[in-house]
């Protein structure tokens, strides 16, 4: 049975894999149950997931905050823990602590044009925000999803992205850095998609998630078309061992990425991004 | 305390009685003792376990024990240990998990921690504990292990009768006199080779404990002596942190050439983080039996000087020695204010003494200040 | 009437947006409507770089053929963007292939004509340069990002 919720924030709750799906090479999406005992998460938050006997890793929630039907995580196998997590199959147990962190500023998006700039696995932490945007579509201005990956095989949530593309009220563009013969879409880095969409820069909020270099180029490109620094939000990645501001690993100068972030407003971290090895 | 002025005097026999009284109240009495040619903190049974007649000689990368020409019980400064090894242990089991019949159960580590009575806590160390309180108890999530150990602890402070060669608490305003955070505070007064202790009460429990001890009221002369001792210590600090807004200084000089200079000397050994009484960083380690049926997680001290510390997929964020030293020092003296509202440094001097190459944090600040 | 239509198209294309009326007349003298069916090449590597294409509709793949991997698309260019920069500088030869991925409609600018007019009127030449250089710079930035392979190698 399920463990009773513990007051000790370092002790994980045992979850079961209800669904496991291969999304891209080395990328799996897991649906975890039961959700009932967990606090509601907001888009952009993360959980600390434990592969028992291997270790723990911070993974963003990639599911729909409104579904109430299991906690969804999309995990890329890049290290021992994430690989062990991607090797879990339906019925397997894993540990979960969370949700932690400050996510996307959803309320600030009301009435604004919204650009989501995603790179690679960075679409996963943005997907809960996309669900919210689509669920309350009439409360936002123009909505654009610009998504870049390394190759066509790395595109996450393909059929879902395609269904978003079919909608008339969302502008969806996908590009790859390296095309193969099968690819008939756009080629080039994700920032080259910006000229393809219509938005009012002064009333635009952009949410960026992807490799740090991609986000740095992204804010430059957005800035050059007039999006103010206060209108850009980045989801940062740093090493995390506790997720709750106690272990010290995720320090980003004054900030703890785990509790002050992972989502930061660009104007507040601009000076930090410019410094090497901070 | 409203009655902060009530002061008594204990003899050495009175201190012995204090240890017994604390043990009777269920405390595990921990204090300074000589081991491996250093003064360390460990269990003590009696006054005889204290470093009677010993003192320490400290400088950058230098620590020696020397004989005193008296029998002072607390005639030294601070050693390589700090109380964090008891309040925030170097290794802490967090939980264990067991898989049976396809079900995994996680059991939190609920070992009842000892109730500690800490003997000989210095003013800088009380300040360090207050700083760790903010780290572990002041945020949205409290650390239950620290909390359990911290809440029940009894603190017997000792005001410093001398300053060490690497001490700079006076410039950090964290000593040498214990101002708060203790149950009882002692000032050791040596008269004719005989130690007497002026006692200040800092809590109700402290008052209760003291009430049962053989003691005499403090005279005006005793109080004047104690004030003189602290004043003399204040005046003889081996080091001083430069004046001014250190936070602003460092954050405006994140690319100062001095970081390259210190990186040439720094061995990135992490000694400074281990001996620092406020450094709190930890990592976790999961272990498993061969079948993967029983697993557990342990938390252990970590250091921002290791390459692994900032590792994310692809590599370490801070791979150069320069970046790692800068992280440690700017965290300690600058971003700590942003995170916890105080400096992370209490001027105890341990990082200077125990640095194998004698890097001096006050000197590094001075160099950056001077090069402005 | 046909000329007027051409002028409107050139004026409305983002590349020439806000161009002075007198310059507009000059550049339109070099322009003509062109169309490429899907799969057709706008130009091939090594051929004479004699056109600047303002894309009006459709998508163009810029490709380099590499032994063993066929044609590698390194960039796609769509409506509102331009294809062709090599016409500006000697030796005026294309350095990659440009293939229409779908039906493409564009304005083709005769490069010799445009170069001659830019030489004759340096104000026009400077204006055209100011429109081209940012595009060059953006493509350089994008190439840097591609070279960095920021998404990392797939896990082994």
UniProtKB/TrEMBL annotation, chain A:
<dbReference type="GO" id="GO:0050660">
    <property type="term" value="F:flavin adenine dinucleotide binding"/>
</dbReference>
<dbReference type="InterPro" id="IPR017927">
    <property type="entry name" value="FAD-bd_FR_type"/>
</dbReference>
<feature type="binding site">
    <location>
        <position position="258"/>
    </location>
    <ligand>
        <name>[2Fe-2S] cluster</name>
    </ligand>
</feature>
<dbReference type="InterPro" id="IPR017938">
    <property type="entry name" value="Riboflavin_synthase-like_b-brl"/>
</dbReference>
<dbReference type="InterPro" id="IPR012165">
    <property type="entry name" value="Cyt_c3_hydrogenase_gsu"/>
</dbReference>
<dbReference type="GO" id="GO:0051537">
    <property type="term" value="F:2 iron, 2 sulfur cluster binding"/>
</dbReference>
<feature type="binding site">
    <location>
        <position position="247"/>
    </location>
    <ligand>
        <name>[2Fe-2S] cluster</name>
    </ligand>
</feature>
<dbReference type="GO" id="GO:0006221">
    <property type="term" value="P:pyrimidine nucleotide biosynthetic process"/>
</dbReference>
<dbReference type="InterPro" id="IPR050353">
    <property type="entry name" value="PyrK_electron_transfer"/>
</dbReference>
<keyword id="KW-0479">Metal-binding</keyword>
<dbReference type="Pfam" id="PF10418">
    <property type="entry name" value="DHODB_Fe-S_bind"/>
</dbReference>
<dbReference type="InterPro" id="IPR001709">
    <property type="entry name" value="Flavoprot_Pyr_Nucl_cyt_Rdtase"/>
</dbReference>
<dbReference type="InterPro" id="IPR001433">
    <property type="entry name" value="OxRdtase_FAD/NAD-bd"/>
</dbReference>
<feature type="binding site">
    <location>
        <position position="250"/>
    </location>
    <ligand>
        <name>[2Fe-2S] cluster</name>
    </ligand>
</feature>
<feature type="binding site">
    <location>
        <position position="242"/>
    </location>
    <ligand>
        <name>[2Fe-2S] cluster</name>
    </ligand>
</feature>
TrEMBL record, chain B:
<keyword id="KW-0411">Iron-sulfur</keyword>
<keyword id="KW-0479">Metal-binding</keyword>
<keyword id="KW-0408">Iron</keyword>
<dbReference type="InterPro" id="IPR017896">
    <property type="entry name" value="4Fe4S_Fe-S-bd"/>
</dbReference>
<dbReference type="GO" id="GO:0051536">
    <property type="term" value="F:iron-sulfur cluster binding"/>
</dbReference>
<dbReference type="InterPro" id="IPR009051">
    <property type="entry name" value="Helical_ferredxn"/>
</dbReference>
<dbReference type="Pfam" id="PF17179">
    <property type="entry name" value="Fer4_22"/>
</dbReference>
<feature type="domain" description="4Fe-4S ferredoxin-type">
    <location>
        <begin position="336"/>
        <end position="364"/>
    </location>
</feature>
<dbReference type="GO" id="GO:0046872">
    <property type="term" value="F:metal ion binding"/>
</dbReference>
<protein>
    <submittedName>
        <fullName>4Fe-4S dicluster domain-containing protein</fullName>
    </submittedName>
</protein>
<dbReference type="InterPro" id="IPR017900">
    <property type="entry name" value="4Fe4S_Fe_S_CS"/>
</dbReference>
<feature type="domain" description="4Fe-4S ferredoxin-type">
    <location>
        <begin position="255"/>
        <end position="287"/>
    </location>
</feature>
TrEMBL record, chain C:
<protein>
    <submittedName>
        <fullName>Cyclic nucleotide-binding domain-containing protein</fullName>
    </submittedName>
</protein>
<dbReference type="InterPro" id="IPR000595">
    <property type="entry name" value="cNMP-bd_dom"/>
</dbReference>
<dbReference type="Pfam" id="PF00027">
    <property type="entry name" value="cNMP_binding"/>
</dbReference>
<dbReference type="InterPro" id="IPR014710">
    <property type="entry name" value="RmlC-like_jellyroll"/>
</dbReference>
<dbReference type="InterPro" id="IPR018490">
    <property type="entry name" value="cNMP-bd_dom_sf"/>
</dbReference>
<feature type="domain" description="Cyclic nucleotide-binding">
    <location>
        <begin position="15"/>
        <end position="115"/>
    </location>
</feature>
């Amino acid at each position: 049975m399920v463990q009773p919720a513990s007051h000790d924030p370092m002790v994980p709750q045992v979850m079961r894999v209800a669904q496991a799906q291969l999304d891209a090479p080395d990328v799996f999406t897991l649906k975890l149950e039961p959700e009932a005992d967990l606090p509601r998460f907001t888009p952009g938050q993360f959980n600390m997931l434990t592969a028992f006997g291997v270790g723990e890793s911070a993974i963003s929630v990639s599911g729909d905050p409104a579904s109430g039907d299991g906690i969804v995580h999309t995990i890329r196998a890049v290290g021992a823990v994430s690989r062990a997590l991607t090797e879990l199959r339906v019925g397997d147990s894993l540990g979960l602590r969370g949700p932690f962190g400050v996510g996307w500023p959803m309320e600030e998006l009301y009435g604004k044009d919204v650009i989501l700039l995603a790179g690679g696995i960075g679409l996963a932490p943005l997907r809960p925000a996309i669900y919210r945007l689509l669920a309350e579509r009439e409360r936002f201005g123009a909505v654009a999803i610009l998504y870049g990956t390394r190759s066509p095989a790395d595109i996450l949530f393909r059929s879902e992205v395609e269904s978003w593309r079919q909608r008339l009220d969302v502008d969806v563009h996908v590009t790859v850095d390296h095309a193969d013969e099968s690819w008939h879409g756009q080629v080039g880095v994700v920032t080259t998609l910006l000229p393809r969409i219509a938005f009012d820069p002064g009333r635009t909020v952009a949410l960026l998630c992807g490799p740090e270099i991609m986000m740095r180029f992204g804010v430059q490109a957005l800035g050059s078309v007039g999006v103010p620094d206060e209108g850009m939000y980045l989801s940062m990645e740093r090493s995390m061992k506790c997720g709750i501001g106690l272990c010290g690993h995720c320090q980003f100068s004054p900030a703890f990425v785990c509790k002050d972030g992972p989502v930061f407003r660009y104007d507040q971290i601009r000076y930090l991004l410019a410094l090497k090895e901070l | 305390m409203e009655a902060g002025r009530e002061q008594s005097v204990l003899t050495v026999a009175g201190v012995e009685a204090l240890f017994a009284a604390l043990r009777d109240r269920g405390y595990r009495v921990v204090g300074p003792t000589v081991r491996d040619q250093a003064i360390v903190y460990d269990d003590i049974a009696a006054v005889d376990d204290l470093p009677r007649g010993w003192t320490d000689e400290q400088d950058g990368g230098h620590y020696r024990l020397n004989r005193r020409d008296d029998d002072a019980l607390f005639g030294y400064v601070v050693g390589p240990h700090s109380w964090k090894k008891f309040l925030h242990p170097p290794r802490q089991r967090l939980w264990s998990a067991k898989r049976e019949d396809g079900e995994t159960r996680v059991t939190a580590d609920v070992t009842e921690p000892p109730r500690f009575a800490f003997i000989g806590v210095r003013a800088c160390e009380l300040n360090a504990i207050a700083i760790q309180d903010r780290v572990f108890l002041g945020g949205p999530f409290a650390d239950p292990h620290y909390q359990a150990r911290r809440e029940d602890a009894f603190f017997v402070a000792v005001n410093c009768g001398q300053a060490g060669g690497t001490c700079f608490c006076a410039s950090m305003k964290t000593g040498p006199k214990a101002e708060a955070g203790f149950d009882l505070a002692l000032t050791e007064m040596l008269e004719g080779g005989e130690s007497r202790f002026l006692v200040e009460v800092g809590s109700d429990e402290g008052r209760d404990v003291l009430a049962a001890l053989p003691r005499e009221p403090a005279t005006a002369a005793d109080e004047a002596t104690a004030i003189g001792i602290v004043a003399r210590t204040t005046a003889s600090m081996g080091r001083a942190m430069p004046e001014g807004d250190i936070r602003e200084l460092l954050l405006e000089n994140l690319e100062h050439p001095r970081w390259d200079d210190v990186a040439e000397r720094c061995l990135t050994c992490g000694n400074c983080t281990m001996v620092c009484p406020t450094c709190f960083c930890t990592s976790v380690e999961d272990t498993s039996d061969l079948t993967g049926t029983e697993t557990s997680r342990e938390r252990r001290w970590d250091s921002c000087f290791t390459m692994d510390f900032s590792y994310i997929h692809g590599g370490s964020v801070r791979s150069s020695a320069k970046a790692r030293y800068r992280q440690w020092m700017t965290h300690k003296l600058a971003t700590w204010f942003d995170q916890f509202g105080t400096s992370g440094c209490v001027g105890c001097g341990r990082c200077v003494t125990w640095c194998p190459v004698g890097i001096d944090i006050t000197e590094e600040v001075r160099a950056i200040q001077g090069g402005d | 009437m046909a000329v007027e239509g051409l002028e409107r198209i050139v004026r409305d294309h983002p590349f020439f947006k806000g161009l002075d009326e007198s310059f507009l007349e000059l550049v339109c003298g070099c322009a003509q409507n062109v169309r490429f069916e899907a799969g057709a090449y706008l130009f091939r590597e090594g051929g004479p770089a004699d056109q600047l294409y303002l894309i009006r509709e459709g998508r163009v793949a810029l490709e380099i053929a590499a032994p063993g991997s066929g044609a590698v698309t390194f960039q796609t260019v769509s409506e509102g963007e331009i294809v062709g920069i090599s016409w500006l500088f000697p030796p005026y030869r294309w350095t990659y292939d440009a293939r229409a991925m779908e039906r493409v409609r564009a304005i083709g600018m005769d490069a010799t004509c445009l170069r001659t007019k830019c030489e004759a009127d340096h104000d026009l030449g400077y204006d055209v340069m100011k429109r081209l250089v940012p595009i060059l710079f953006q493509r350089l930035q994008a190439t840097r990002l591609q070279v960095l392979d920021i998404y990392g190698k797939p896990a082994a």
